[in-house]
Structure formats: structure tokens, C-alpha cells
Amino acid sequence: MSWTNLGLYILGAVGLIVFLSLTVMVLTWIERKFLARIQQRMGPMRVGPHGLLQPIADVIKLISKEDILPSWADKPIYWMAPLAIFVPAIAIWVTIPFSESLVLQNLDLGLFYIAAISVLSVLGLVMAGWGSANKYSMLGGLRAVGQLISYEIPFIMAILGVAMLSQSLSLIDIINDQSNIANIIVQPIGFLIFLAAGLAELGRTPFDIHHAESEVVGGPFVEYSGAHWAIIQLAEYVNTFAIAALIAVMFLGGWSWPSMPFSGIPHHLLSVIWFLLKIYAVILLIFWIRGTYPRLRIDQLMSFGWKVLVPVSFINIVFTGFVRFYNLHWSVLTAISFITIGIIFYLIYKAPQHSREKNTIRIVSAKEAINSPPENYGDINVR
User: Fold this and answer.
1) Is residue 73 helix, strand or coil?
2) Which end is more exposed in the chain, N or C (fewer Cβ atoms within 10 Å of the end residue's Cβ)?
3) Number of CB atoms found within 10 A of residue 332's CB
4) Does 48 lie in the same domain as 155?
5) What is the rounded CA–CA span in Å between residue 63 and residue 52?
6) Concatenated DSSP letters of 303-325
């Protein structure tokens, strides 16, 4: 590699970090205003017109705050944890393209690279939980391990389903393969699997149990403050932007569906804008889910991952392989996906009724309890 190429790579990496940092500031403002609208509030209004400068004020505040180090913390691990969270969040953007020519490095194994990098995110959470030497941090770190390992399987299986459709692991090839029809139409169940698994990977509502404020007081990050906490939050929003970009690439056709008019520079510019609009539409969906759905209990979260998403992701792979092997029309896979989605929603709808009937408690008077034998009350022993 020549010095010129090395300089271009360094310049591209610096430009990418600056772009993502500015994007995170925009996302924080959008999320606060969007959630405020859902909750019938105004949101930030004081700093700048309609609170547009509020993210800048927040950055200045966080950088100027003192970094508090607990005396009992494991100092090397405590300081390295935010870096271990931030580096994979940036590294995943190496291969995510904004157009055919606007990408840091177009890897032939791009999806494989993304799957490998996504596994590293759990390391920083565990380091933060352990290094803080706090019981709530440790509980949050252990929850994060269980959650991310459970949802990594459907996450990778959804990626594999898209790779089977496009016969490629390159993100640009996947986008070009959707020039006629997007994968969200061909494989809607794959889209839902990836969206749910992606939210779990991000730790966003309703899968935010590892830093649930009402249970573990912020989880692995409870002891962090100042610039280090700002880095953790920056990584969270960069990851959110990355998941939205991956959904736009793998299921919404990126910039190629539908194709933009004109040619040359206007075509490329419109393609990038169209791609960004799809990303922000997915981000608004993620914010809407946060504003409307409650947090799952940890048993519900693990049950949903292992009993619903993992089996359905394998079913998706089997039927995708079947359609590709016999060279069937894409509408067959669409029909199978919608039938599977209908069955899943029916079973989820019926499951709570079963649970309520099974766990019904009958309240009896003291006189009835004395006169009736204890076996009439199931597992309850009357004394």
C-alpha cells in the first residue's frame, strides 16, 4: 500500500467519524422531539430555534463534566470499556456503502464482516459491568451477555437469508440485486426477524433490559460520567444508525429501488439522498417503537428469542433455500412468509390466554379453606 492510499484511508476514516458524530447530534434532537410529540410535550425548545442547538449544549456539558472514578473499580478495564464499545460501532461502517462509489472499503465478504463485528459489541458491555465493580453494573453486564448471545443467532440467520437471495455477501451486490423488487416484499419475515434482533442488539425498547433504569439503575453504565459516558452514548446512536442502514441495504433496496432518474452527478446525488431518507424512515420506526411499547421482562425477552425468533429464522432459511433450489417465483416465498407471520401472531395472541387459565388463583374464605381438602387448591397448602 502506497503512502497516498494510506493517507486517503486515514482521511476517509476521519471524515466518517466526523459525519457520524454530526449524525448522532441530529438523531438525539430528532428522538427527543419525536418522543415529545408522542407524549404530547414540546421537547427541547430553549437552546436555539426549536431546540436545534440542544445537542451542542449537551456535548459541551458532558465534555466539561468531571470523570468520576470509583475507588473500588478495576481501573484498566473501567477506562478501556467505552473504547471497546465505541471501536466496533465505528468499524462496522467500513463496508456500509452510501452509493456504489461512496464507500470506505467494498468487501466481497461484507455481510460476514458485519456479523463478526457485531459479536464484539458484547465485550465492551461485560468490561463496563466488571470494571465498575458495582452490583447493578455486573447484573446489567450479565443480562447483556445473555441477551446478545440469544439474539445473535436470528440476527445472523436473517443476514444469511438475504445472502441466499442475492447469492452474494457484498452489500453493493445485494443492493443491485434489488433493482427490480426489494427484499422486504420477497422476504417480509426476514425483515421482521432482523428488525427485532437488531433492536435487541442495540438494547433499545422493548429489549433494553440490560440498562433498565427501574431494575438495574442503568446497568453497565451506572458508574460512568462525563466524556466516557458521552462516548458510550455516541456508540449507541452510531449503532442505531448502522442497523437502520443495514435494513435499508438488505431489505429496502438501498439506492437502487426504485432507481433514481437522470445520469452522472445528479443521479448519484439523488441516490445518496434517497438512501438517507430510507435510513431515517427506519430510525423513526425505531423511535416510534420506543415511544409506544413497554419493556419486556427478562423471561419474556429470552422466551421470545429462543421460542419464536430462532425457530422462525431457521424456517425462513429452509424455505428460502427451497425456493432458490427449485428456481420458483419470488411470490412463493412472499406467500410463505405472510402465512408464517400470521401463524406466529395467532400463537402469540393465544399464548397469554393459556397462561391466564393456567395461573388463575381462586380466592376462598377461611371457612371454605378449612372445610375443603388442600388438594382442591392445587399447589397451595392450607395450614
Assistant:
1) coil
2) C
3) 14
4) no
5) 19
6) HHIIIIIHHHHHHHHHHHHHHHH
Residue ending a domain, choose from 40, 64, 88: 64
Domain count, the chain: 2
Residue 373 counted as domain residue: no
Residue 30 grid cell: 430528532
C-alpha cell at 85: 464499545
Collapsing DSSP states into helix, strand and coil, what is residue 52? Answer: coil
Tell me, rounded to whole angstroms, the distance of Cα 351 from its chain centroid: 26
Q: Are residues 173 and 48 in the same domain?
A: no
The domain of 135 spans: 70-356
Q: Where are the alpha helices (DSSP H) in the chain?
A: 3-38, 54-64, 75-91, 110-132, 135-166, 171-177, 183-186, 188-202, 213-216, 226-250, 265-292, 298-304, 310-325, 330-358, 366-371
Residue-level pLDDT, tens digit, the chain, 383 residues: 677 878 877 888 888 889 999 999 999 999 999 999 999 999 999 999 999 999 999 999 988 988 888 888 888 999 999 999 999 999 999 899 988 888 888 888 899 999 999 888 888 999 999 998 888 898 888 888 889 889 999 999 999 999 999 999 999 999 999 988 999 999 999 999 999 999 999 988 899 888 887 888 888 888 898 888 999 999 999 999 999 999 999 999 988 877 777 777 888 888 889 999 999 999 999 999 999 999 888 888 999 999 999 999 999 999 999 999 899 999 999 999 999 999 988 887 777 655 555 555 666 666 676 666 555 555 444 44
Task: Please enumerate in sequence order all residues whose Cβ is within 8 A of that of 271, keeping only pairs 6 or more positions apart, or say none.
Answer: 99, 255, 256, 260
Tell me, yes or no, if the pTM score tops 0.85: yes
18 and 113, same domain (yes or no): no
> Do the beta carbons of residue 197 and residue 148 sit within 8 Å?
no
Are the C-beta atoms of 203 and 147 separated by less than 8 Å?
yes
Contacts of 139 by beta carbon, 8 Å cutoff, 6+ apart: 129, 216, 219
Is 315 within a domain?
yes
> 3-class DSSP state for residue 208?
coil
Beta carbons of 155 and 202 less than 8 angstroms apart: no
Q: How large is the greatest C-alpha to C-alpha distance in the chain, in angstroms?
A: 91
Residue 361 lies in a domain: no
| DSSP state for residue 378 in the 8-state scheme | T
Query: Are 139 and 42 in a shared domain?
Result: no
194 and 331 fall within a common domain: yes
